[in-house]
Design brief:
Elements lengths: L22 H11 L5 E2 L14 H10 L13 H12 L12 E4 L1 H13 L5 E6 L3 H9 L3 E8 L5 E2 L1 H7 L4 E7 L11 H13 L3 E5 L15 H4 L5 E6 L12 E6 L6 H13 L5 H12 L4 H5 L4 H14 L4 E2 L8 E2 L2 E2 L9 H12 L1 E2 L1 E2 L11 E4 L4 H17 L3
Amino acid sequence: MTALRTLDQSSKLRNVLYEIRGAALAEANRLEADGHTILKLNTGNPAIFGFEAPYQIVRDMLRAVPTAHGYTDARGIVEARRAIVSRYENVEGFPSFDVDDVYLGNGVSELITMTMQALLDEGDEVLIPAPDYPLWTAMTSLSGGTPVHYLADEQNGWQPDLEDIRAKVTPKTKAIVVINPNNPTGAVYSREVLEGIAQIARENALLVLSDEIYDRILFDEAKHVSMAQVAPDLLCLTFNGLSKTYRVAGYRSGWLIVTGPRDHASGFLEGIQLLASTRLSPNAPGQYAVLAALTGMQSIDALIAPGGRLHVQRDVAWEGLNSIPGVSCVKPEGALYAFPRLDPEVHEIRDDKKLIYDLLVSEHILLVEGTGFNWQTPDHLRVVNLPEPRVLAEAVERLGNFLASYRQ
């Protein structure tokens, strides 16, 4: 019998990392299998923390199931795409677009992957924020591109550093990614900063890719401004979906909107259409959730208002983290996370991945290290703000107790 050939990982995956579901999660699952209770604060998954999907969405999906067993249009059903058009018609200054400019996807993740595969040749550079949602970096690398990380300034509320962006543009730069509100920092970008990014894109003929999945999860007086609003003269792809605002992450229902001039990008847009066609269609039941979500009561408003659960939990996490000696945290203005800093003068962390592992083993709490979001130094962590306030407060307290005696 011929010896079995060794099957190794594709070299294309060499620079593809996704620590949110990395080695620490595997250890957490092993501990759970041994009977331990693990508080998993590694993913923004509302369902596991008691957030129920709005009943209108569930009802409409159930009604659609008997007739939603076939392929749909490659872009998605017209009714859902029309609802997305109507949603943005109510956003002042958002450029006009039509149903043919909308692609539905199996979550925003699939649409990011399709976009990068349609766009990038070997060596093309994409500007991505640091810290970032790591799928953007991973899919840039997997598609043959080179991720170039521009810095967000923690001292300025994690707003992007415009001068750093400008300094990192090269002749190979093809696109810039904007994540607003930001995951993992919770920053909501100012109009001034967004206009500065748009101007850099204008000067260098860059495609704008704007991840706005948290655009309706805002706290206090924060206002979300879309990149498409400040760059109507640029080709801009806006990514959004149901997973966070409507607490239905498992439905895998996202969308991509194309706005701005297109004549210069016909090949790229044909590539997106080709890839949309090769996946045959988005999952059909999830598409029917879009129509129900966007036309029904917006239950997120009560959750983010003062006294609402998400607002209270944001405050519990932020206040608790800042009470830990040697830990500071910029107050999140949006999204579902906090990104605290561990002062190197107090907590000398050389390996934040080991810190996460040791915290898991000791306290049975799973977080994600800052370097997992392409932050350059091992001095940050991401905390998910989704557990109910009592559980979240206890978790933060246990983190503080752990750090008090932890040494590497």
